[in-house]
């Protein structure tokens, strides 16, 4: 399947972690057992305790491709940028500490990006899993090409952050991750999308298992900080672009509107899109 020799393309996979739980070893193993072998796994231990750091130092001895760094800063954006800075790979792959990358993920993403030089960011489809590793959803993503992703970005983030791969030169050109405690990937996508030549794509293949728990979903839905954070960047895009779709997204995110049934939400959205395009 590969169109280039592995030694010619190095992939740097960046995983930031701040606690030791039963999911981390599985996440690490899912990267180290990829069919594509020419990669480095950069693990940034951000604001971690000694137990986590000791674990990482031990696991690093088992595979020379593991690189560990420790910082006292718990904010994800800083640690992702740090990982990008020290990455040696042509491509940067993202990974979260509780998810699972399926074995051919890196291989399929490299193959696509090497064949499609104009694509700047590549995601994959994914399914949700619970704490018992059981699949609890159908494939989530239904938006795959650049045009549709760009349209959807005005209303939601249609691509999974831990499934992403992009060229290091592109993320540096776009000045890396900028801000946001809850939506750093969405902020990056919106900023990159202002460049009409920047191209997004998502593979239809399910190549990531994205872990969620009931408590996590409840906390995310009720988190006023999450709402304020995302609303701030959406309002920024409205100021810069003048596109009213971003204002609609702020309304859709509000607690009041979240209590409205999905069919009504869809009617409102379709009406708004028709009126503004």
From TrEMBL:
It comes from the Bacteria. The keyword Transferase applies. Its EC number is 2.4.-.-. Keywords: Glycosyltransferase, Transferase. One of its GO terms (molecular function) is glycosyltransferase activity. Residues 14-174 form the Glycosyltransferase 2-like domain. Pfam families: Glycos_transf_2. It is an enzyme of class 2 (transferase). The keyword Kinase does not apply. Belongs to the glycosyltransferase 2 family. This is Glycosyltransferase.
